[in-house]
Design goal:
There is one protein chain. The protein has 703 residues and is an alpha/beta fold. The protein has three domains: 2-143 and 162-199 and 236-287, Zincin-like (2-Layer Sandwich); 295-495, no CATH class; 508-696, 2-Layer Sandwich (Double Stranded RNA Binding Domain), CATH 3.30.160. Helix content is 49%, strand content 9%. It has helices at 2-25, 38-45, 49-59, 68-80, 85-89, 115-120, 124-141, 154-163, 165-179, 193-198, 249-262, 274-294, 298-309, 316-334, 352-361, 364-381, 386-401, 419-426, 440-449, 474-496, 530-546, 564-582, 593-600, 621-630, 638-641, 679-696; strands spanning 63-64, 92-96, 103-105, 110-114, 508-512, 515-516, 518-520, 525-527, 550-554, 605-614, 653-660, 665-673. The strands form three sheets. Strands 5, 6, 9, 10, 11 and 12 form a six-stranded mixed sheet that branches. The longest helix has 24 residues, at 2-25. The protein is globular. It starts with a helix and ends in a 7-residue tail after the last helix. The chain binds zinc ion. Zinc ion binds at residues 133, 137, 168, 171, 246.
Length: 703
């Protein structure tokens, strides 16, 4: 009997492991599961500061519940608080889609654990200690007067953290004495827990980015595209922790070391299986890749893909993600703007520096061709991926339209080969020689029918050798021909489409969180006046109503009492909008598009409509990097962090865009400025005109 039980236990284990492997192999993105937790509904329905933080996470698509990550964290907390059941019941746990290594707790017991924390820890005990630390903060704050969570400026944020240094040491002490020491977790296993926080800014692993990542035997980039050495990772002794949410790591480390010395260790590193830990960590790591690609942070995306591919070779998600990263990078490079999408390499430590350096060195045409290369080779492996095909078509379109490159610009023979010796071995006829027996038409037919080989040319550079292996490939050729046909189609369509209605009678439009923002240059602050918001909302409603457009204006109050399917859809749109903010230029296949399409497949919505009044898109690139990675999120700055990318600079501007979910295209993206005194009336008129044009297919006459 006992043998039988062991057998079934083992069987269940292996089945579970096989399922886990399959989930890693077929990963797409994480989404919430099950019913919306009652605590979350409570937060969605209240309007205190903590609830607002939760709400802003929800509408930006960064909060997840009900996943295997959530249950993993909850189980660790339950193990830790085995003897403190009443305390455990006060807590609720959510995962935050953020790669920064952080966890936090609110005064109401809402525990937020970032993906980055789960992605970087090395065992289960470390998570237990970190949760214990947060829970100690909660217990300490309970009963104390509530701290204001209102953010005034970055300075007050820093001083808040300096004040909390003592609290940090105290929280560690409580975590160890009250919870950890009495738990099934191992003290020895957490001796490096502070390194997880110190080095959380580094990729999941330090894997060198070699030339083989981007080169082939038949083409090589100049040596100056690669660094001789990457910048050394600063040692733990040099760690500057002024900007950390949990400062004083040095002192905390000493205290921890002393505690470990003085206490006997009877716990285990893993209470749940090690395999479960690794599986949960992989899910978190893969989702971090989604985060980087949605934020168009291609240096981080590629560095972490490299680290993951090291032990997850042939993972479909990672392969597609890599191609998407090179494609996205090309789009920004082509636009002459990479400072927003690749961190400045000078400051970067470790292997990631080589990636960012290479991306800063490569030229526009090379970046475009590299994207075409990467996409084509991956499509051969996954020919059914519509997303890959769309990116490839777009990159090929750019190759011809933006970079004026034709197939004749790409050699069929490796870089460094001599044209004359190739001619001799292939016995290629001199193309200049004219066959006198042929007439004009048969000569043209011959030219069209035979794909002529392009020989190396002394003017050719690396770029011209980058397609040697795929140029004659049938998949490449059909993709390329389709892309060219699409260019013709689109040019024809551009002339006609203006006359055609875009929004048909049956199409539903989701007007996503219209917002009226006011920017004060003097104080450099942005406010969102309620009156302006209400006016804008009613202008949208009345315009769409009178034009018989089925539009639903989605506003914050609609976050309340939703089901999980809808919750996930909100999350997708939130993330999609984050990505849209990264695109200050016209056409690009958005990374969020396939997920959005899947998420909306069962809904009636065809379009997402963004309407904003206020000023220009702002927030400098450097700011983006510093907020995203240098300063981890905390309760105090959360709402502030989430606003960084949209700081309007001008007063009366109307932004209007319409995205076709089914087609995956931004149909309209317009900006209307009005600086006259009666600007509101003009803006309303412009808004009406946009809807009118989309519904009726032509411009209304008069102003
Ligand atoms: Zn703390």
């Amino acid at each position: 009997m006992k043998k039988l039980i062991t057998f079934f236990a083992l069987l269940t284990f292996f089945v579970a492991m096989a399922q886990a492997n399959e989930k890693i192999d077929n990963f797409t993105y994480l989404q919430s599961q099950g019913a919306i937790p009652a605590r979350l509904l409570e937060s969605l329905n209240s309007d205190d500061d903590e609830a607002k933080v939760v709400q802003s996470l929800v509408k930006n698509g960064r909060l997840i519940y009900g996943t295997e990550l959530n249950s993993y964290v909850e189980t660790v907390a339950a193990n830790l608080l085995e003897k403190n059941q009443d305390l455990f019941k006060k807590l609720s746990f959510y995962i935050v889609k953020s790669p920064s290594v952080n966890a936090m707790i609110s005064n109401k017991g809402i525990v937020l654990v970032n993906l980055g924390m789960l992605a970087q820890i090395t065992n289960e005990s470390e998570l237990a200690f970190i949760l214990g630390h947060e829970i100690s903060h909660f217990v300490e704050n309970e009963g104390k007067k509530k701290k204001s969570t209102k953010i005034v400026s970055l300075n007050s944020y820093l001083s808040y953290r300096q004040n909390s240094r003592e609290d940090e040491l105290e929280a560690d002490k409580q975590s160890l004495e009250r919870y950890f020491n009495a738990s099934p977790y191992s003290l020895q296993a957490i001796e490096n827990v502070f390194d997880v926080m110190r080095y959380g800014y580094l990729p999941f692993d330090e894997i060198p980015f070699t030339r083989a990542e981007v080169e082939q035997p038949f083409y090589q980039y100049p040596d100056n595209y690669f660094l001789a050495n990457v910048k050394q990772i600063r040692s733990r002794a040099d760690y500057v922790d002024t900007l950390s949410t949990h400062p004083n790591l040095q002192k905390r480390q000493q205290n921890l070391d002393r505690f470990i010395e003085r206490n006997t260790d009877s716990g285990s590193e893993f209470v749940q299986s090690k395999e479960t830990f690794l599986y949960v960590r992989d899910l978190a790591r893969l989702e971090c890749i989604n985060f980087y690609l949605t934020w168009h942070d291609y240096g981080s995306a590629l560095a972490n893909i490299l680290a993951l591919r090291h032990y997850l070779p042939n993972n479909r998600f990672l392969e597609i993600a890599e191609a998407a990263a090179y494609y996205g990078f090309h789009k920004h490079k082509n636009d002459g703007n990479i400072k927003d999408v690749v961190e400045p390499y000078k400051e970067i430590e470790g292997e990631k520096q080589q990636i960012c350096y290479f991306l800063s060195k490569i030229n526009k045409k090379e970046a475009n061709t590299l994207a075409v290369r990467k996409l084509t080779s991956i499509i051969k492996k996954y020919p059914d991926s519509n997303f890959l095909r769309r990116m490839a078509a777009d990159a090929m379109y750019d190759l011809t339209k933006e970079n004026n490159l034709n197939l004749e610009d790409f050699s069929d023979f490796a870089q460094g080969l001599n044209a004359d010796s190739i001619k001799a071995t292939l016995q290629i006829n001199d193309t200049a020689k004219i066959d006198e027996k042929k007439d004009k038409y048969s000569r043209i037919r011959v030219k069209k029918g035979t794909k002529q080989l392009v020989l190396p040319n002394e003017k050719f550079k690396t770029l011209n050798y980058m397609l040697v292996d795929i140029k004659q490939d049938s998949i490449f050729q059909s993709l390329y021909d389709n892309a060219l046909a699409e260019i013709e189609d689109e040019e024809a369509l551009a002339i006609v489409s203006f006359e055609k209605p875009v929004i048909q009678a049956n199409d539903r439009v989701l007007v996503w969180m219209p917002q009226y923002a006011k920017y004060k240059p003097k104080t450099q602050t942005t406010t969102y006046p309620k009156v302006g918001n209400a006016t804008l909302k009613s202008a949208i409603k009345s315009s769409t109503k009178s034009l018989h457009i089925a539009a639903d204006v989605f506003t914050e109050d609609k976050l309340k009492s939703r089901d999980t399917e809808e919750f996930n859809r909100i999350s997708l749109v939130g993330q999609w909008r984050t990505e849209w903010r990264q695109i200050s230029f016209r056409r690009m296949q958005m990374y969020m598009q396939p997920a959005l399409q899947t998420g909306f497949a069962t809904s009636d919505y065809r379009f997402i409509n963004l309407v904003n009044e206020g000023g220009e898109r702002g927030g400098s690139a450097g700011y983006k990097w510093s907020i995203l990675y240098r300063a981890p999120l905390c309760w105090v700055t959360l709402p502030f962090d989430l606003l960084i990318v949209a700081i309007p600079k001008m007063d009366k501007t109307l932004y209007f865009s319409l995205y076709d979910i089914e087609k995956g295209e931004m149909i309209v993206s317009k900006k209307y400025e009005q600086s006259e005194i009666d600007a509101d009336a003009y803006l309303n008129q412009a808004l009406y005109n946009y809807y009118y044009t989309l519904k009726n297919g032509r411009k209304i006459t008069g102003k």
